[in-house]
Design a protein that fits this description.
Length: 419
């Protein structure tokens, strides 16, 4: 390959510019500074687009490091801003670059390209253009997922990308079934994990099995009810075996998938009955109260928290409602289907999730939030507390922390003197 070029990554400064779309005026109250200088929005927009065009060109560079850096910079931009018009004009160029990087790149480059493919579809939403992107990239992603010679990390990224892109774009039930079968062929191998004599290989493959299971679960949430029934009959009695896996993330993925399956099963049939309920609840209760000393405290705490919720879902049909704040709005996550969907998009959008919940028409449609709430700068400014009030609050919080710490120090001092 050629010499790697110096690629200036998409920076936080770029991400803070509130001029990236028709939705830019209501990004976040905190982004407006009191009496701040006026910004030439048109010039800023042109400058940012110029940078992004450069990154797109660099995805075809001879140097693998340069290509990967360009992909990562595009990912950062796409996750932090709505760039619909910019992307619409260059979707085929971007699709060709992603396809090339997945086919010919090494592990890290393939992962970056798969991540960019997810974000490209998130930007485009569910339309004909996204369907064209998926028709091009779908077969390539499936090939990598099923390729035993490809790196586990690349197969993981492609499995996740396959699930998310299919979720976003497909109205074709045949394509949905085909994608789910591809993912099933991967994670069902975990059912026979104990028979694998090569424990190292088995542990390594667990990461791939988790990604495939979570992507499959996401697609299950948009399946027709008759198909949901078939999948439940096929997997509900096998999934509990994964609760005994050594890997914490596999246990959690299996537990949350079980909770979601029970939720869907009871929606399709109010009198749904599971034969091995007693054995399953015993397993879940053991995981919710696990005190094994050989496990890390952080892992045990996380596991107990998740499986308390899973046990409540299976036994009592209950879900602990969570509230997500973004700008002036609130969203309540009140079921496992919604939680699975939110967690998936939060994973790929990262810190940009709140911005996309405010501005992205596709995501707002998925979570039934309605059209974006249009707020002008003046309204947002009135919602923001003054610097003086913020100063008083911070001072009070600092004093409270200092007092609490002083008490703890005094107790330790007393104990030391006593002994």
């Amino acid at each position: 390959g050629g010499q790697p070029r110096n690629v200036q990554p998409f920076s936080d400064e770029d991400a803070s510019i509130e001029t990236m779309s028709h939705c830019s005026g209501f990004s976040d109250p905190a982004s407006f500074t009191e009496d701040g200088p006026e910004v030439d929005e048109e010039a800023t927009q042109e400058d940012l687009e110029y940078k992004l065009k450069g990154f797109i060109d660099l995805t075809l560079d001879k140097s693998a490091k340069t290509r990967q850096a360009a992909l990562e910079s595009l990912k950062s931009a796409f996750s932090s801003k709505i760039l619909y018009e910019f992307v619409m004009e260059r979707r085929m160029t971007l699709t060709d670059s992603i396809e090339r990087c997945i086919k010919k790149g090494k592990s890290d480059e393939q992962c970056a390209a798969a991540g960019l493919a997810c974000l490209l579809c998130v930007q485009m939403g569910s339309g004909i253009e996204s369907e064209e992107i998926f028709k091009t990239l779908g077969p390539v992603l499936k090939k990598i997922v099923c390729d035993g010679t490809a790196s586990i990390q690349a197969r993981q990224a492609c499995a996740t990308c396959l699930g998310i892109c299919c979720f976003i774009v497909t109205d074709d039930i045949t394509e949905l079934h085909s994608t789910m079968e591809c993912l099933e062929n991967i994670f069902t191998k975990a059912y026979q994990r104990d028979r694998d004599t090569n424990s190292v290989s088995s542990t390594h493959n667990t990461l791939l099995h988790i990604s495939a299971l979570l992507a499959w679960t996401l697609l299950l949430t948009i399946c027709p009810m008759n198909e949901v029934k078939k999948k439940i009959e096929m997997h509900l009695h096998k999934l509990p075996s994964l609760l005994s896996c050594d890997d914490l993330n596999m246990r959690i993925a299996a537990g949350e998938t079980l909770a979601l399956l029970f939720e869907l099963a009871r929606e399709t049939d109010a009198d749904f009955f599971y034969e091995d309920m007693e054995l399953l609840t015993e397993k879940l209760r053991a995981l919710a109260t696990d005190g094994n000393k050989h496990r890390a405290k952080v892992d045990k705490r996380k596991q107990r928290s998740v499986f308390r919720d899973v046990l409540r879902a299976v036994e009592e049909r209950d879900f602990p409602t969570e509230m997500v704040k973004f700008g002036p709005e609130r969203m309540y996550i009140d079921c496992w289907v919604k939680k699975q969907t939110y967690d998936t998009f939060k994973e790929i959008l990262g810190s940009g999730m709140q911005y996309h919940l405010q501005s992205n028409d596709f995501l707002r449609n998925v979570f039934e939030l309605g059209p974006p709430v249009m707020l002008d700068a003046a309204t947002l400014k009135t919602m923001k507390i003054s610097r003086f009030e913020r100063h008083l609050y911070n001072s009070a919080a600092f004093k409270a922390r200092t007092k609490a710490r002083s008490k703890c120090r005094d107790k330790r001092a007393d104990v030391g003197e006593f002994f």
